[in-house]
Amino acid sequence: AQRVTQPEKLLSVFKGAPVELKCNYSYSGSPELFWYVQYSRQRLQLLLRHISRESIKGFTADLNKGETSFHLKKPFAQEEDSAMYYCALNNDYKLSFGAGTTVTVRA
Amino acid sequence: DAMVIQNPRYQVTQFGKPVTLSCSQTLNHNVMYWYQQKSSQAPKLLFHYYDKDFNNEADTPDNFQSRRPNTSFCFLDIRSPGLGDAAMYLCATSRAAAFNNEQFFGPGTRLTVL
Predict the structure, then answer these.
(1) Contact B43 A44 (CB under 8 A)
(2) What is the pLDDT of residues A70-87, one digit of tens each?
């Protein structure tokens, strides 16, 4: 069965410091992974997807099949990055979400 | 702007009194989902419609039902809400692409059960 694990419930960093959100998955096939973000009082929205290999708002995430990980990274955190972040695995049109990590960026 | 709309944004109901939550979309997506999200928890999929085909998750209580009268609208019916059903309910849509299946979420309806 597929599973997504986000080991950190809370993450607090200073502005300008690097931030890394961990995500590990278990899946028998070829995984399709996403990071979704929910800013305060806003809807859940896609941040980035592994297939695109893109950088969004300075965030990147690399799929490591050997370690079954899809960690989200940003070299210099900004205050506007404070939000809830969910790692998600797509399986047959359905998303399995990790428990989420609340990121607080302090000035 | 094409989007996913949920009404109402806040719903208060009494224990045991049926309630219906509404979702509409202008994206013309063929898949619509309903999630339950409790405080500080991840969204939990209740069920989804692929076109007119209803797909229930194995652990979704019978108390929860859904209707999709057309492509644009989907409803969540809670037949006899209990205190444990108080949560945020999220509607989402997708194109059901075989790969790269992004889901678009509505703002949610916060349900309070008194």
Answers:
(1) yes
(2) 999 999 999 999 999 999
